[in-house]
Specification:
alpha+beta; 38% helix; 26% strand; Ribosomal Protein L22, Chain A
Length: 144
């Protein structure tokens, strides 16, 4: 069972909210609630509000009673609309200021985490010394 909570048009840039969400992704809900008060960013208060909303949704909609089972499976911040302002500067110039907003989304699940053995991060295929040597030979052949 997956439960989702979304806060839209939040007055914090998506990049700054993403820094907080990166620290919580994959953690248990109880652990995330203990970590959030110690994150010294304004976005942490907003993320905590969305997380508590997702917990309430899980309790109300799916009758989840124990928080020990819930994990944060997805946490992301999408960019919202920007409020555009103009700041007058010297000699008739104008600087444009963008007050960025974002949409915060947190998805909780009580399903156990299944990890596949032998899977690597999406950094691409590993290069063996033989493949490196073969690539170097091909590049050397092109130059000559």
């Amino acid at each position: 069972m997956k439960t989702k909570a979304v806060a839209r048009f939040v007055r914090v840039p998506a990049r700054k909210a993403g820094l907080v969400l990166d620290q919580l992704r994959g953690k248990r809900v109880s652990e995330a609630l203990q970590i959030l008060p110690y994150i010294r960013r304004a976005a942490a208060r907003l993320v905590e509000k969305v997380l508590r909303s997702a917990i309430a949704n899980a309790e109300h909609n799916h009758q989840v009673r124990t928080l020990d089972d819930l994990r944060i499976v997805q946490a992301f911040a999408d960019g919202g609309p920007s409020m555009k302002r103009v700041q007058p500067r010297a000699m008739g110039r104008a600087f444009f200021i963008r007050h960025r907003t974002s949409h915060l989304t947190i998805v909780l699940s009580d399903e156990p985490v299944v990890r596949e053995k032998g899977r690597r991060a999406a950094a691409g295929p590993s290069r063996t010394p033989e493949s490196r040597a073969a690539g170097a030979a091909v590049r050397a052949g092109r130059k000559g």
